Each structure stands twice: as structure tokens, then as C-alpha cells.
């Protein structure tokens, strides 16, 4: 009897895992710049992106040698008009997150140039105090509160937390759910109030190409090469039908055998 119960539990587990494997969403892993000017929390980090067709969830695992003590920014290109540079016209210093998106105080005259053809229309900024998503107006000057707050995304509870999740809806960045939309992105890691005059100081840690062995500091920076890219899921009717068929057959066969054993 005990062996039979074990066998039943084993079969049920296999059935459940088979169904989960069939229906699971794809995942894409990204790694940081490999640099460690701010001790490596972002430079040696990894991001695992997944989505269910509607919501993108990112598992961020920091590098083991440093704490997540500053601000991490991801700029998004969603295929609409945006900005190819975050320069002196973008100067929203209302809070830490907005300041990080703005790169540095306008008085420094420094510019963050994004990859060729990249149009930043949204940005995520995360620190231990808050993580959020903001829209970036594509023209004109952007002063305090000029970046449009969209939604909170999540943040680590402490600088030493090994990993944390943040998430956002595709519709929040103007993309149609379940459409296989592409999100291009690059990332920076900086102290928006560091450096001379507390006007901002950027590390050599981030996501994308062009980072070197020295921190950006209070200087211009230009991303090189192509941005990173994530393709959201598209539900495939054939996959759902196949998954449902397999699970139904496995389930029916298991129940039939269980009934036969019970009546024997």
C-alpha cells in the first residue's frame, strides 16, 4: 500500500511538471558590463527577463563583491519617437530617481549619448528607496517633475540583498500585450548627487557596450554598438492545444489506472 501511494505521488508529480514545462514562458539572461568602479553590484550583475505576454518580470542578481548603494537606470526604446541623448535639456532633479534618469545636473554640460538610432521614450530607475517607471518627453526642456511618472516597479529592501524582482506592464510602455513586441534597452549605474558640487557621478557599471576600466565620473559618455534587446512572448494557439492535449491524455490515463487498481 505504501509503495502504491509513493507511485501515485510520483506519477502526479510528473504530470504536473510536464504541464508546467509545456506552458512555461521563455526567459532571457543578460549580464552587466563586467566593470567594478562602484564595487561591482551592477557591473557583475545578471538580469533574467521573463514575461507572460502582459507583464515583464525581471530577476536582478547583484554582483557578490559590492552593495546596491546607488541608482540603477534602464532606458527603453519601444519604437516610438524619443531622445537619442540625455543632455542639458533633461534636468529633472525633483528626487533621486528622476535625477538618475537625467544623468547629471545640467550645469555640468555633460551628455549621455545612447546607441545610434536608439530613441529613449521610457526609463526605469531603481534604488533601495524606490523603483519606478517614467516616460521621457521626446522634445523640449525637462525640468523638475517633467518626467512623467507611470508606475512603481519594485526595489531591493536593502543594499546587501542578493537578488530582487521588478516588473512592469507592456501596456505601460506603450506596447501591445501578446504581440511579440521588442524592447531595446541600455543601463547606467550612478550616484546622481555625487562628484564635484554634488552634481552627479557615474560608474563604469551598466548594461550595453562602451564601458571601460575607468568610471565615467562627471564626463560625457557614449554607448557603442547595439543596445540589448528583449522580445516579449506571443501565445501560440498550437502550443496551447498541444499542451492541453498532452496534459489531458496523461491525466486521463493516470485516473484510469488508479480506478482499475482501486476496484481490483
UniProtKB/TrEMBL annotation:
Signal peptide feature range: 1-27
Superkingdom: Bacteria
Keywords, in A-Z order: Signal
Protein name: PEP-CTERM protein-sorting domain-containing protein
UniProt organism field: Bythopirellula polymerisocia
Higher taxonomy: Bacteria, Pseudomonadati, Planctomycetota, Planctomycetia, Pirellulales
Amino acid at each position: 500500500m505504501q509503495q502504491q501511494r509513493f507511485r501515485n505521488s510520483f506519477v502526479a508529480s510528473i504530470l504536473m511538471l510536464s504541464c508546467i514545462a509545456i506552458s512555461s514562458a521563455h526567459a532571457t539572461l543578460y549580464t552587466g558590463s563586467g566593470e567594478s568602479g562602484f564595487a561591482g553590484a551592477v557591473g557583475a550583475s545578471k538580469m533574467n527577463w521573463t514575461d507572460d505576454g502582459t507583464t515583464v518580470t525581471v530577476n536582478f542578481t547583484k554582483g557578490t563583491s559590492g552593495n546596491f548603494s546607488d541608482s540603477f537606470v534602464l532606458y527603453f526604446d519601444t519604437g516610438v519617437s524619443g531622445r537619442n541623448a540625455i543632455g542639458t535639456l533633461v534636468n529633472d532633479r525633483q528626487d533621486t530617481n528622476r535625477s538618475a534618469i537625467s544623468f547629471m545636473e545640467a550645469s555640468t554640460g555633460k551628455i549621455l549619448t545612447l546607441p545610434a538610432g536608439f530613441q529613449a521614450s521610457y526609463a526605469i530607475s531603481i534604488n533601495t528607496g524606490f523603483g519606478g517607471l517614467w516616460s521621457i518627453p521626446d522634445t523640449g526642456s525637462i525640468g523638475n517633475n517633467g518626467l512623467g511618472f507611470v508606475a512603481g516597479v519594485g526595489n531591493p529592501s536593502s543594499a546587501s540583498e542578493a537578488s530582487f524582482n521588478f516588473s512592469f506592464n507592456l501596456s505601460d510602455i506603450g506596447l501591445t500585450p501578446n504581440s511579440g513586441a521588442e524592447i531595446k534597452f541600455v543601463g547606467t549605474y550612478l550616484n546622481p548627487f555625487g562628484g564635484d558640487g554634488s552634481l552627479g557621478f557615474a560608474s563604469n557599471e551598466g548594461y550595453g557596450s562602451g564601458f571601460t576600466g575607468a568610471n565615467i565620473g562627471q564626463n560625457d559618455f557614449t554607448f557603442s554598438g547595439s543596445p540589448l534587446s528583449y522580445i516579449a512572448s506571443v501565445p501560440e494557439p498550437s502550443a496551447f492545444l498541444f499542451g492541453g492535449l498532452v496534459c489531458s491524455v496523461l491525466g486521463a490515463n493516470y485516473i484510469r489506472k488508479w480506478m482499475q487498481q482501486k476496484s481490483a
